[in-house]
Amino acid sequence: MAAIIELENISKHYSPTIIGVDNVSLTVEDGEFVTLLGPSGCGKSTLLRMIGGFEEPTGGAIRLADKDVTFDPPYKREVNMVFQDYALFPHMTIGENVAYGLKTFKLDKDTVRTRVKDALMLVGLYDKLNQRPQQLSGGQRQRIALARAIVRRPKVLLLDEPLSALDAKLREQMQIELKHLHEKVGITFIMVTHDQTEALVMSDRVVVMEKGRIAQEGRPQDLYDHPASPYVANFIGTTSFLPGKVSALSGGVATIAAGGTQITAHPDVTLSEGATVTVGVRPEKVKLLAEGETADNVFEGTIAEVIYYGLGLRISVTLADGSKIDADTLLPDKLSHSTLPQSGAPVRLGVAAHNVFVFEGTVTP
Amino acid sequence: MSFLRRNLPGMLVMGIPLMWIALFMLLPYGIIVTYSFWLKKYPTFIPAFQFGNYITIFTDPQYVRVFLRTLKISVLVSAASFLLAYPFAYYLVFRCRSAALRTWLYMAVIAPLWVSYLLRAYIWKTILGTEGVLNSFLMSLGIINEPSSLFLYNQFAMVVTLTYIFIPFMVMPIYTALEKIPTNLTEASADLGMGPWRSFWTVTLPLSLPGVAAGFTLTFCLSFGDFIAPFLVGGPDGNLIANVIATQFGAALNWPLGSALAIVMLVVVLTIVSLSDRMERKGMTGGV
Amino acid sequence: MTIKKTMLGTLGLLALTASPVLAEGTINVLTWEGYADPSFISKFEETSGCQVNATYVGSNDDFAPKLMAGGGVYDLITPSIDTTKLMIDLDFVEPLDTAKIEGWNDIYPKFLALDGIQKDGEYYGMPYSWGAIAFMYRDDAFDTPPTSIADLWREDLKGKISLWDDKSAIYVAARKNGDMNIYSLSDEQIAAAQKTLVEQKPLIRKYWATAGELVDLYKAGEVVISNTWAGYQSSLLADEGVKVTEFIPKEGAEGWLDSWMVVKGTPNKECAYKFLNMQLSELGQCGVANVNGYSAANASAAKSCMTPEQFAALHQDDPAYLDSLLIWTPLGDRFEAYTNAWNAVKAQ
Ligand SMILES: Nc1ncnc2c1ncn2[C@@H]1O[C@H](COP(=O)(O)OP(=O)(O)OP(=O)(O)O)[C@@H](O)[C@H]1O
Ligand SMILES: [Mg+2]
């Protein structure tokens, strides 16, 4: 596969103190579905808007299909954007909205009609052809916005939080639809979101951003299994962090003093003996051990809090050295108070060695 | 009784404005309508029910002529205001980067509204006069050799003065309409391949039309009813319909004919207002 | 009870604020600027004990609408001789007790003979001041002084001519056409005058509506020839250093006469008659002559209070001049034909 978009040291400094994007380099392959993920204000939209041509970078270069487009206006780029609140033209019908982007192509009437029809069929809203955007629901408008962008057959489709205005149910449904759509049309998608589930569900590759820079990029499962920093570990999924110290190293296995015990781990980074580290454990990888049961690593503590969250329970445990760790567990078969763990009760928690993250330093995310 | 007591506050809340409207709007119109059927008879006029006054208005060419002239002046004032106000409002909303400058410029256009109408009209008299500012300026530039009398006491001067006086009523609604257009719509247009000009024609302008309609209505109706500008800067061919009405109520002592003229004028204005209202409402369904 | 009281109080307050003070000893006059000038009214107020409130009109057309709006406000008015008859016919004014007016018999007999101020053998108006609707030109604009109304139709003066925005324009045009019966024109004569005025329109800079406006037009160099209220605007222009000359064209000039009239049912009769006596005395007669430059109606008062030069300049003892003027005459039911023609000219 060839690179369709190349960002080379792209920066956008609104002012010396307001930095939107800082020195970002990124290559997107043709046909890929890439997500820019990060908290509010981290520069996702700014980066996307520079690709679309709505902002000019203060440094670096953007190449689209090997052509430098850094300072081209939006109407000269073969990319299209799906705006966060859809930006449908209220004074035009759905059909006119979708046909709008074809005007510059100087196509004959029939071609326009079939392409508009195809695009609307693709999103399943051909029957709304003569209605106005105001007469449509949020999810329908979302799909029209998609059709309007796709009808131009751009090289790249940019989506800025396309689903954020939808309710949770519809959002889940649209995530799948959008993914199928991507597979169907074969266009490169670059999507912005601050919702990690969305990113994990939909994308081939996730770019996690932090304060205008790329914190880590990779396939969703790689980011999940091998976060490069506590920031990423906490942004993709949830992670409990424990301060620790490397007590022994042998081969790929490290022994670390943490949580009032000695644990074993397979760190992604090279450590030195005696180094101060931060250990991370995902709640869903922590198991409540029954009497006599054992695991690679066993923590002992008392239950501080039990939170019921629908699918299961999250149990917050205070360990011997005072640090805290969360454990998720599915609900027992029969939901009755007697079988639920109680606050103040002593527990034993088990974690497999390959499920322990080790980060250098004492950074708290 | 209990019904009354319970509904008294509601009746007061609704009743007072209704009475106000009845007393200060409907009653005067009723009186004018009544007069319009009366008959002029020395020394004044007598009650009657006849359409003579209306027939006079539509058959005596002097009234038709003044109506057409007033229409022409009002259309020119509205058009001139539009041509000046639109680019100005557009600049303020989309091009002016500094918020302070924007407020300042906006106030500069609106502030004259707080200055007396007469004073503002007089200013134009001193600018456009034969020995006025404009003539001195043009002579100092050597563009003309002797003062021109072409600027004052004619329809041009009236259009200029009325445009100056009523342009805030064009700027305000257009500014508001432009400000309401989400920026992402113009971005979307650019994104879909349209250059700035075509984006303007296909997105910005259509979406600002309700404001333009409101501005046209205001400036048109205000100019249509004006009688000061003809008096101050108009020439011998500057008589407008409001001047004629004033004459009928004053010098000619023909209140019936004056009333009939006022009713015809009211009908013209109401027609314009309802047309523009329909347009605005149409814009609304297309609005954001 | 309390509500009633408050309402009465409010009504009283409304009455107080809505109209000038109505108390005995105060008279409200609706008149021309200068006719109640402090230069002579103050003295009257001191000696008579009557207060004078003056409201000014800009034109004779203001009297009827102001009085129609509701009575009881004004005690005295000063319409010109073409409007006095209308006031009588509208029943706005009451007959004068001429016996109570000292100096009545010193008024020029020509004025007392006018129809416009009497009805059924009774006088309704007291002649006060008079003058001509003369013509006026800017000295520096003419090598040979104009002498004819036709000069207001000269192509070479295009854009420098002004005419009073009044039905009197018909009188002017009629005379230019050779019709000297200007107050009894036939429909054809009026139509001809209208046509003559329409021909003049392209030459007109502006029709003047107020005295001040004409002064401004001359001052700003917009206008060099026009008609004028003799004595008034020319003296204002002289004060401004603009040199103008008044002239009576060979087609003659109209004359006007303003008369004091007592509004019907005035509660201030005593002060009203004191006021009339003062205005016809030397105080009032020379007062208005000095302030407005108008001629006086009381021959003997004028003689004793004016300097010989002023006396001559105002044509006070010049029967030939007075006779040459075409004194305004009420148009009666022909009024509409005149105003309509003039309005049609303006509409053109
Ligand atoms: N026009 C602008 N002028 C100045 N600063 C800006 C501008 N636009 C964005 N910024 C700043 O740049 C930074 C990145 O903004 P950006 O909109 O890219 O964030 P984001 O990641 O999209 O956040 P969100 O999830 O809230 O949309 C923020 O600190 C923001 O305040
Ligand atoms: Mg954003």
UniProtKB/TrEMBL annotation, chain A:
InterPro entries: AAA+_ATPase (IPR003593), ABC_SmlMolc_Importer (IPR050093), ABC_transporter-like_ATP-bd (IPR003439), ABC_transporter-like_CS (IPR017871), Mo/tungstate-bd_C_term_dom (IPR008995), NA-bd_OB-fold (IPR012340), P-loop_NTPase (IPR027417), PotA-like (IPR005893)
Alphabetic keyword roster: ATP-binding, Cell membrane, Membrane, Nucleotide-binding, Translocase, Transport
Pfam family, one: ABC_tran
Catalyzed reaction equations: ATP + H2O + polyamine-[polyamine-binding protein]Side 1 = ADP + phosphate + polyamineSide 2 + [polyamine-binding protein]Side 1
Keyword Transport assigned: yes
EC number(s) from the headed UniProt entry: 7.6.2.11
Domain ABC transporter span(s) in chain numbering: 5-236
MF-aspect GO terms: ATP binding
Quaternary organization: The complex is composed of two ATP-binding proteins (PotA), two transmembrane proteins (PotB and PotC) and a solute-binding protein (PotD).
NCBIfam families: potA
Family classification: Belongs to the ABC transporter superfamily. Spermidine/putrescine importer (TC 3.A.1.11.1) family.
Role played: Part of the ABC transporter complex PotABCD involved in spermidine/putrescine import. Responsible for energy coupling to the transport system.
Name this protein carries in UniProt: Spermidine/putrescine import ATP-binding protein PotA
Taxon lineage: Bacteria, Pseudomonadati, Pseudomonadota, Alphaproteobacteria, Rhodobacterales
TrEMBL record, chain B:
Main location as per UniProt: membrane
InterPro entries named among the record's database cross-references: MetI-like, MetI-like_sf
Residues of the ABC transmembrane type-1 domain: 67-276
Transmembrane segments: 12-38, 73-92, 104-123, 156-178, 199-232, 252-275
Cited CDD domains: TM_PBP2
Bilayer disposition of the protein: Multi-pass membrane protein
Subcellular location: Cell membrane
Keywords from the named record: Cell membrane, Membrane, Transmembrane, Transmembrane helix, Transport
Record-stated family: Belongs to the binding-protein-dependent transport system permease family. CysTW subfamily.
PANTHER family reported in the protein's UniProt record: INNER MEMBRANE ABC TRANSPORTER PERMEASE PROTEIN YDCU-RELATED (PTHR42929:SF1), INNER MEMBRANE ABC TRANSPORTER PERMEASE PROTEIN YDCU-RELATED-RELATED (PTHR42929)
Protein name in UniProt: Spermidine/putrescine ABC transporter
UniProt organism field: Thioclava marina
TrEMBL record, chain C:
Signal peptide extent: 1-23
Keywords of the record: Periplasm, Signal, Transport
Keyword Transport annotated: yes
Annotated localization: Periplasm
InterPro entries noted in UniProt: SBP, Sperm_putr-bd
Keyword Ribosomal protein part of the UniProt annotation: no
Name used for this protein in its record: ABC transporter substrate-binding protein
Source species: Thioclava marina
